[in-house]
Amino acid sequence: MDAFRMLYIDPGTGGMLFTVLFGIFGVAVFGLRALMVKIKFLAGSGKGTKANEQKIPVAIFTDHKRYWNTFGPILDELEKRHQKTVYFTCSEDDSAFEQKYEYITCEFLGKGNRAFAKLNLLNASVVLSTTPSLDVFQWKRSKDVDCYIHILHAANGTVMYRMFGTDHYDAFILSGDYQVDEVRTMEQMRNIKPREIELCGIPYMDEMKKRLDSAGEVPAHERTVLLAPSWGESGILSKFGEKLIDALISTGYKIIVRPHPQSYTAEKEMLEGLMAKYSDPSKVEWNRDNDNFEVLRRSDILISDFSGVIFDFSLVFDKPIIYTDTKFDISPYDASWIDETPWTFRILPELGLELNENNVGSIKELIDRCIEDPSFAKGRDKARKETWVHIGEGTKRAVDFVIKKYNEVVAEKSAEKAAEEKAAENKRKKRNTGKKKAK
Questions:
Q1: Distance between CA 411 and CA 161 in Å, rounded?
Q2: Which of the residues 227, 247, 336, 342 could staple to 363 if both were Cys, CB 3.0 to 4.6 A apart?
């Protein structure tokens, strides 16, 4: 019996071990696949090598066009400063291609392994990205990149990435002290050398706030509820689905459902079933706008789960939320390594009320209370202070940091080159001295 006790692993630890083993397996599989693509790529036209002969000063990589709101303001600022930059994207219809930049070059990388094969050969001083899992799966650190900088694409914690998501970045652009604590905790637990962190703020939220301030008042309208979930098994639509939508329709309020873009591919069957059942636009409006600004602006309250839109809605638009008890499984995430509840979940009771299986039938009362209770406005003020530093200055500060890191890399390389040249000169002098003595 004691022997069996020794072999017992609790479910939480078991889940974590499974995730780690899956990660190791994934690294092996994707590493081999990436190597094959890389060999094929180099054996082909050789364009990858030629394209990287000249070092790129600053490179930005995005895996999807939806992060244009993060990088658009940064690229505009880099352009304004005449800083040569290459913007790499995996979306052929990225908004970057519509811009008329002089100092920014925009390049479509392709999708999947084709994109990563190019990134893995990149020759750049600094790379800025919001994509996690650098050096974990397909995307490997290039030996010719000097500094990788990670920037968050939402106002939430750094531990909400899948395990090891930011372990191999060299520096971070963050927006709150609690995020700094999370990074430092992970570094200590994993014996990672402390990386440089710059608290800059949130560029895209600054731009959204400017846009909102200039948009004027929203015209009088019926009370409008926006359901905007994340995707996956822990998301609202997977957990609550028809039960929640039926309850919302029964309120008599205008209901808008805006699924996460990933839902259209990752959970296509489930989503298409819901859209077919609730196809009457007088009862449910399905929103798929690429830009979510107007739908957030015309909604009075948001119902969501762990999606970053919660913070856009509450902190920029200054409106209440209802968050759902989805029993979010943190075992595959960095959050599972720390004892305390992540800030992303810890702050939610300050912003609104929880929706669960027991109070779905009272959804109208929850909506009305959230909108009318002034305590949630105080909670939003608190959240802003904790997760959105330097409001209005995020873009400038982020670009300051990127250029600072670039200048440091250039100075370091110049010093190394000077040292090498000096060593070579000393070697030549020594040889010449030896020849003279020999004569």
A1: 33
A2: 247
Distance CA 305, CA 260 (A): 11
Which amino acid appears at position 3 of this protein?
A: A
Which of 3.30.410, 3.40.50, 3.30.70, 3.30.300 would CATH assign to domain 27-202? 3.40.50
CA 190/CA 180 separation, integer angstroms: 16
Per-residue pLDDT reduced to its tens digit, 161-208:
999 999 999 999 999 999 999 999 999 999 999 999 999 999 999 999
CB-side neighbour CA atoms (13 Å) of 104: 23
Q: Identify the DSSP state of 367.
A: H
β-bridge partners, 105:
86
> What is the distance, to the nearest Å, from the Cα of residue 356 to the centroid of all Cα atoms in its chain?
27
> In 3D, which of 42, 67, 51 has the Cα closest to residue 117?
42
Gap between the Cα atoms of 3 and 101, Å rounded? 68
Contacts for 34 with CB less than 8 Å, ≥ 6 apart:
113, 116, 117, 120, 138, 140
Cα–Cα–Cα angle for 63, 68, 72, rounded to 5 degrees:
130
* Average confidence score pLDDT of the chain: 88
Q: What one-letter code names the amino acid at 167?
A: D
Q: Output the six-digit token pair for 356.
A: 């669960």
Put the strands of the sheet holding 85-89 in their side by side order.
104-108, 85-89, 56-62, 124-129, 145-151, 171-174, 196-199
Residues of the chain with pLDDT under 70: 1-53, 326, 434-439
Q: Where in the chain is the domain with CATH 3.40.50.2000?
A: 207-387
The verdict on domain 207-387 having CATH code 3.30.1300.20 is: no
The residue assigned the tokens 């190019």 is: 118
DSSP state of 314: I
Q: Cα separation of 210 and 228, whole Å? A: 23
Q: What does the chain come to in residues?
A: 439
Number of alpha carbons in the 13 Å side-chain half-sphere of residue 376: 24
Long-range contacts of 43-48 (CB under 8 A, 24+ apart): 48/117, 48/118, 48/121
Chain-centroid distance of CA 108 in Å reads 20
Residue 84 to residue 101: CA distance in whole angstroms: 10
Burial class (CB in 10 A: 0-12, 13-18, 19+), 261: middle
Q: What is the pLDDT of residues 121-172, one digit of tens each?
A: 999 999 999 999 999 999 999 999 999 999 999 899 999 999 999 999 999 9
